[in-house]
Amino acid sequence: MARRAADRFGSLGPFTPEELAALAGLPFIGAEAVILLGLDESKVAARPALRKIGELLRLVEEPPEPKGQ
User: Apex CA 39: angle with CA 55 and CA 52, to 5°?
Assistant: First the structure.
């Protein structure tokens, strides 16, 4: 995905596509570890934070709905 983004949008700044993919994926690994350790959301809000990242990605990827419809 990072390579496709580089092809489509150009420069990823100082990052290679592989480095950017690693930075994007590593927080999910950490959050999954916290969830599997059984820490509840009152201590670490990993699950709702991951869900919000999904919502953010949907907003960026989906075209805006036309106004007035």
Answer: 5
Q: What are phi and psi of 41, to 5 degrees?
A: -65, -15
Structural tokens at position 19: 């480095």
Q: pLDDT by residue (tens digit) across 5-32? A: 888 888 889 989 999 888 888 888 888 8
- Following DSSP, what letter does each residue of 17-68 receive, concatenated? HHHHHHHHHHHHHHHHHHHHTT--TTT--HHHHHHHHHHHHHHHHSPPPPTT
Each residue of 28-51: b (16+ CB within 10 Å) or e? eeebeebeeeeeeeeeeebeeeee
